[in-house]
């Protein structure tokens, strides 16, 4: 199915609801001397410290060719789904921001990408930002989570937000949000179970699996769709499942077979492995693998996992098969890694009959 034919399947506004940690990505090409001035290395991915406080303003002032992307894992996924669907307002996104100029820039960038936004605003904390500094084929990331850490569960209780949540068919959050407000994640799980909505989540990073995996495990009985990559899956298996294997297919099956509150909807687990086959495990069924198309060149792998989930959720919302949803996810990731940062061409050109052929 091409992107043109998917346009004819009009989804309701707000079909997909996402909640996470919004960050404004500030992307600029810089010399290596800029990195050295902040003791950074090519391909670093770190949290900002005191020594980085003036870095964001310096990027804006000294590098006029900078550009902005509405970032943060879940927000990336919502942008990818909206791009794949070519249906603005099909995705609603929620998270906490500050009351500053970065918030306005972030709001404008996310709105331009077609998202419906319901940011919580914390007037005491600055909007989260991520400096994406490109040196040749390398990029270094320095994230200041800022207000993203300040989300509170009462934001879910505002009438408009309750309406957004209740109206959605799919609810998604990346694992990073479990570090911020696990109570909100749990509330959304219970909401999804009560109203027959799909609850989807992501292992997101090894440190989430190791240090916050217990929070994710509390929601697991509600999880309909679980995403992750092979490194995250192995870490989760070791620290949370306590199983002694690094076989990704075996781990995916174990994850799919964990107890589930609504047993009539078997859990679906999707584990990506970079250029290696993507693994699909459905509780009670045989494991399947899907080949991945490799681009001739890779510019930046940042956001590839988020993009995969966005493509998958888009096709899940359209009622497509899991095989087509995996191919749609792979296509989004394929396009993402050929762009700088987590961005895409103007329009998708996807046909599951030819993409992996």
From TrEMBL:
Reaction(s) catalysed by this chain's protein: adenosine + ATP = AMP + ADP + H(+)
Record: active site: 306 (proton acceptor)
Gene3D superfamilies noted in UniProt: 3.30.1110.10, 3.40.1190.20
Pathway assignment: Purine metabolism; AMP biosynthesis via salvage pathway; AMP from adenosine: step 1/1
PANTHER family: ADENOSINE KINASE
Protein name: Adenosine kinase
InterPro entries for this protein: Adenokinase, Carboh/pur_kinase_PfkB_CS, PfkB_dom, Ribokinase-like
PROSITE patterns in the cross-refs: PFKB_KINASES_2 (PS00584)
Family, as annotated: Belongs to the carbohydrate kinase PfkB family.
Assembly notes: Monomer.
Zinc listed as a keyword: no
Top-rank EC class of the record's enzyme: transferase
Protein keywords: ATP-binding, Kinase, Magnesium, Nucleotide-binding, Nucleus, Purine salvage, Transferase
Protein's cellular compartments: Nucleus
GO biological process, one term: AMP salvage
Required co-factors: Mg(2+)
Domain Carbohydrate kinase PfkB: 43-345
GO CC annotation terms, alphabetical: cytosol; nucleus
Enzyme Commission code(s) on record: 2.7.1.20
SUPFAM superfamilies for the chain: Ribokinase-like
């Amino acid at each position: 199915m091409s992107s043109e034919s998917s346009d004819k399947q009009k989804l309701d506004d707000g079909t997909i609801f996402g909640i996470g940690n919004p960050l404004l990505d500030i992307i600029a090409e810089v010399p290596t001397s800029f990195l050295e001035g902040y003791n950074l290395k090519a391909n670093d991915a770190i949290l900002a410290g005191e020594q980085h406080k003036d870095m964001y303003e310096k990027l804006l002032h000294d590098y006029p060719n900078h550009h902005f992307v509405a970032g943060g894992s879940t927000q990336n996924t919502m942008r990818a789904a909206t791009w794949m669907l070519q249906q603005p307002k099909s995705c609603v996104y929620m998270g906490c921001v500050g009351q500053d100029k970065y918030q306005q820039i972030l709001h404008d960038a996310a709105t331009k990408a077609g998202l419906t936004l319901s940011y919580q605003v914390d007037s005491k904390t600055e909007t989260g930002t991520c400096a994406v500094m490109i040196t040749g084929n390398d990029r270094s990331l320095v994230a200041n989570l800022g207000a993203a850490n300040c989300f509170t569960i009462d934001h879910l209780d505002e009438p408009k937000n309750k309406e957004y949540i209740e109206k959605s068919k799919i609810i998604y959050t990346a694992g990073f949000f479990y570090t911020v407000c696990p109570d909100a994640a749990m509330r959304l799980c219970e909401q999804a179970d009560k109203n027959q909505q799909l609850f989807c989540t992501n292992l997101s990073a090894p440190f989430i699996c190791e240090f916050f995996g217990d929070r994710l495990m509390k929601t697991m009985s509600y999880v309909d769709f679980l995403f992750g990559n092979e490194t995250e899956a192995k870490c989760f298996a070791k620290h949370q499942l306590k199983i002694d294997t690094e076989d990704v297919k075996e781990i995916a099956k174990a994850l799919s077979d964990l107890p589930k509150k609504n047993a009539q909807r078997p859990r679906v687990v999707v584990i990506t492995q970079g250029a290696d086959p993507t693994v699909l495990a459905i509780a009670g069924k045989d494991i399947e693998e899907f080949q991945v198309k490799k681009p001739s060149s890779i510019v930046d792998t940042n956001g590839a996992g988020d993009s995969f989930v966005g493509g998958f959720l888009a096709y899940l919302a359209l009622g497509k098969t899991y095989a087509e949803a995996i191919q749609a996810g792979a296509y989004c990731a394929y396009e993402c890694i050929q762009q700088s940062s987590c961005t895409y061409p103007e329009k998708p050109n996807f046909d599951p009959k030819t993409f992996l052929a």
